């Protein structure tokens, strides 16, 4: 949800990382930790560009762990990061079934010393937008919405959305960041506001009326659909429209239609009492200052309100690598279809929520980053190699340093695409 540093070397890395071997890291890794596994899923799903087995290098779990331990411990120490959890999903060379490795580092808070586990909760920031896109696809698949419907159709009659030359903003445009709406109600690249909610300083709280009142006076500067501009506001508005259609809260809709179906009980906006003790403390970037939490209510939940664990996010990653093996096959496959050629970079197109590098080519890769005041997250996968990873950390601005090196460890031929979270 917050702005992140642009990677000036992004395009160069995208074109140069093909076939790279694991980084030559020192062999002084920390002792092996327990790596819980998630049930395997098979066989490969249809729809990805074809690729020969020799084009994807096999994952060596022991070597990967050794290199991952060394890499992450070095970055955490350098950047004062308290906690990180990483999931890697990859195909077993013998059975072709998906396997999962979970890596946990650090402590839930810098004061407690309580070790991070696969049940530690993190704010996942704008990765929430993927679940909002999933809900949109679910509504479309169930005949409740259509992608090219005007958003106005699904809002209270008292709400006025801006139009440009008679062109209304559509649901598809909200889900691809091409609506023409600004990043936040304050506009520009500014961070989300911090306000006191129920006596607690909170990031990103805007009531539905705050959103509606801003939109009532906002004037579009270009036709909807004509240009990519990252918009937390747009995805939050999409979440509000979904609440109107589903006659339920965003949290309940996500649980009923998406996370509950996939088997992700720890992914919620408002954690259950037994889950709250597992929530990591967020910290501002490269500091020991505790960060304010993201809002638990209001009209901005669809843009960044979910919390999750690495265990749950590994399930989500595997489900997106092989949608056909889930009960949400049509939904997840729809979000991965190219919906707009407009993206944050010329080589990037947009699915519903997903950023797609090299769509329809052998370098095709799906990704999404996320950030709140005190957390940073990233998810990426290749349908071709059936390999991907998720990173969750309790400090802001981790992506630029850690993610490119994780790509290299996995032999992937992409560098991270940071939106503006």
Task: Describe this entry's structure for a reader.
- With 421 residues, the protein is α+β, with helices and mostly antiparallel strands.
- The chain is built from twelve helices and 13 strands.
- It has helices at residues 10-16, 61-79, 128-141, 171-175, 208-217, 232-246, 250-262, 273-276, 301-304, 310-321, 329-335, 399-409; strands at 83-91, 98-106, 121-123, 163-164, 167-168, 194-197, 200-203, 307-309, 348-350, 355-357, 365-371, 376-382, 387-393.
- The protein has a seven-stranded antiparallel beta sheet with strand order 2-1-13-12-11-10-9, sandwiched between helices. The protein has a two-stranded antiparallel ribbon with strand order 3-8.
- Helix 3 (128-141) packs across helix 11.
- It starts with 9 loop residues before the first helix and ends in a 12-residue tail after the last helix.
- Residues 3-46 and 50-55 have low confidence and may be disordered.
Secondary-structure blueprint:
Blueprint (H helix, E strand, L loop, with lengths): L9 H7 L44 H19 L3 E9 L6 E9 L14 E3 L4 H14 L21 E2 L2 E2 L2 H5 L18 E4 L2 E4 L4 H10 L14 H15 L3 H13 L10 H4 L24 H4 L2 E3 H12 L7 H7 L12 E3 L4 E3 L7 E7 L4 E7 L4 E7 L5 H11 L12
Antiparallel strand pairs: 1-2, 1-13, 3-8, 4-5, 6-7, 9-10, 10-11, 11-12, 12-13
Helix pairs in contact: 2-12, 3-6, 3-7, 3-11
């Amino acid at each position: 949800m917050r702005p992140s540093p642009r990677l000036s070397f992004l395009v160069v890395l995208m074109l140069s990382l093909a076939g790279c071997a694991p980084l030559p890291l020192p062999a002084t890794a920390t002792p092996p930790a327990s790596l819980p596994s998630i049930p395997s899923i098979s066989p490969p799903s249809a729809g990805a560009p074809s690729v020969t087995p020799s084009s994807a290098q096999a994952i060596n779990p022991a070597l990967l762990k050794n290199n991952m331990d060394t890499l992450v411990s070095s970055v955490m120490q350098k950047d004062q990061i308290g906690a990180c959890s990483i999931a890697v999903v990859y195909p077993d060379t013998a059975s072709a079934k998906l396997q999962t490795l979970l890596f946990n580092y650090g402590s839930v808070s810098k004061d407690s010393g309580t070790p991070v586990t696969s049940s530690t909760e993190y704010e996942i920031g704008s990765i929430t937008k993927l679940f909002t896109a999933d809900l949109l696809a679910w509504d479309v698949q169930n005949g409740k919405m259509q992608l090219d419907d005007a958003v106005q159709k699904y809002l209270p009659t008292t709400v006025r959305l801006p139009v440009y030359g008679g062109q209304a903003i559509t649901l598809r445009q909200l889900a691809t960041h091409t609506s023409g709406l600004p990043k936040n109600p304050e506009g520009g690249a500014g961070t989300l506001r911090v306000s006191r909610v129920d006596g607690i300083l909170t990031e990103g709280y805007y009531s539905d009326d705050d959103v509606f009142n801003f939109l009532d006076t906002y004037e579009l500067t270009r036709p909807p659909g004509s240009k990519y501009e990252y918009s937390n506001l747009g995805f939050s508005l999409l979440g509000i429209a979904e609440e109107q259609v589903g006659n339920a809260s965003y949290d309940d809709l996500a649980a009923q239609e998406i996370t509950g179906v996939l088997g992700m009980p720890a992914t919620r906006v408002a954690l259950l009492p037994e889950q709250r003790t597992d929530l990591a403390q967020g910290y501002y970037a490269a500091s020991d200052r505790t960060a304010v939490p993201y809002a638990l209510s209001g009209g901005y939940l669809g843009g960044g309100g979910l919390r999750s664990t690495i265990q749950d996010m590994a399930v989500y990653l595997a489900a997106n690598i092989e949608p056909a093996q889930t009960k949400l096959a049509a939904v997840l496959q729809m979000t991965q279809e190219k919906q707009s050629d407009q993206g944050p970079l010329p080589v990037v197109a947009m699915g519903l929520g997903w950023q797609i590098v090299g769509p329809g080519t052998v370098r095709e890769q799906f990704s999404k980053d996320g950030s709140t005041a005190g957390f940073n997250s990233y998810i990426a996968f290749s349908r071709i190699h059936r390999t991907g990873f998720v990173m969750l950390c309790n400090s802001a601005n981790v992506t630029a340093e850690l993610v490119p090196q994780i790509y290299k460890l996995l032999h992937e031929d992409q560098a991270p695409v940071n939106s503006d979270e």
